[in-house]
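request received
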Amino acid sequence: MKFFRILSCFIIFTFAVVLPTHAKDMVVKEPPKSLSQFYPPESKEPKWIQQMHKLSTHFGGVFINLKEKDFANVDKHADQLLEEYKKTSKMVPEWKDYFDIKAAEAFTQAAKTHDIAKAGKASGGLGKTCGKCHAEQEVSVWAQFHWPRFHKIKVTDPITEKEMGFDDYMSTISSSFKGVTVNFGEGQYGRSAKALKIFKSRFMEMKSTCSKCHTTDDVKLFYVGKIAESAFDNLAKELNAEKPNPGQFWKNVGLLGKTGCKHCHLTHRTASFIQETWEKE
Amino acid sequence: MKALKLSTRLLNLFTALACFAVAGIATAYFFINEKFEWIPQTVLELAREPDLLKRPDAKRCSDCHQAIYDSWKASRHAISWTSKTFIEASENRTKEKCLACHIPESVTGEKPSPRLDRRDEGIYCVSCHFRDNKMNGPYDLVAPAHPTFRNPEFVRSEFCGSCHQKTFKEWKNTGIDDTCQDCHMPRIKSRLTQKFPFSLLHKKKWVGNHKFLHGDLTEKNILMEAEFRNNYFTLRLLNKTVPHAVPTADNGDPRLYLYITFFNAAGEQVDQAKEILAPQQETALAFNKAVNFRYRLFDPVDHANVILKYQPAWSKEKQTIWEKLIRP
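response:
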């Protein structure tokens, strides 16, 4: 019975308080400049997120040890949580109002009673302070410090050998793709085959582009991998056939879309939209 | 008579002094080069320059090692943090993954950590040579100014593989004995120090070129065979001599561009093709492994012009490696 009480306290805290409770009209503002001192290149490591992990670990440590009746470690985590919370409150001056030291002290004291119900109740006051900051700032921090700036990426077009911005390259690659599909739809298979060569060359260039951030082959191949290569081979084979099979053609076009385009767009576009908005301001 | 006696005495005095000086230099030379372990530690401690053990800048090292400093200063390592290409590619140095190798704290054979100080110096003397409060290097020797340590890692490819991991793996797969240092740090017999009087007291040694030479590619390195047959033009490229992929890079984007242009009998261009051989596209030329390209010819072709160009990671300029005219 007690276990379920602990569990329910933890779940309520996690989902209702710590995890961001974003309002529908959430505003994503650029994070304060002072935060950059806790991220590369100003810092060797991403110290801010590491600090968040410390708080989260000590908070979790209190409840895990309460459950295990390891009270020495409950006290240890409670003290460390308070210490780190105080430290965090001084790291970004613009965010000092998010912190409530009294609430943190109250939680530490409650945890030290070793009464799970008291600790759970006191965690609510502390958790609200975390939740408010997460709701208002977490998306901005991730968009600013954890995602690359797509608009700054330069790509050398393999066809013209001219360097262009990432957004322009995306438009160029999209036009090349349409050269393949539109011509095929019109029965112009020769033109479609020529356009496919250009499109393939531009698509494969993305391997170099992805490698500007992704250093491991596995990640690169997630976007431009064997499925994409084989889809290109099949498309070329189809376009060089006496009578191309539309079913096969569109199936392979779909494979390219599902692997290369969709994988990347689903992963990256949201952050890219936010950054783009900030850069336009 | 008196004047003659005085001049003879003076001559004797100078001769004696010269003999002492030569004997002194000879003794010092002997001890420094042959029996330096006999020199008491307390004597060496008196000659130490403590700031050298506080991660000095490269210019400070040049006080003694001018020649090495000059070649390093002309190297890509010296501008690993300040080069325009790096600043652009790393989004104004914000990409965490780039920092470790562009401003390494200490290179030890494993991926280094980035440092916070003296970043403009890039990969500098201290990054590679300073470890455990000693200056590490390939030689066992005595240097009064700082403690030294002979570290065998300095002549092994693994050391360079701390950062050049992909290239190191490529080299290892070739089974070739020549190390990174053999080709990129060719040695010449010279002195490690140019500071007087130490320049006289140290024997000449084989000193590696700290410009970290980037070999020039020629047709001896990249062989080509081509032929026209049955409406197809086939071309074969072979990296014959470079014991890693060409081009190679862990994160940079060097490229070989292969341009093929087809002409008819009237000299008019009838078609063209292009291949990009780049490590980031997994199309670079592996050592001793031929790569074939095949092109269908739709119109009558009289000859093809084939050009191979190289573009290093740090430049937008391409250098022609070779150009060939191929006839059926």
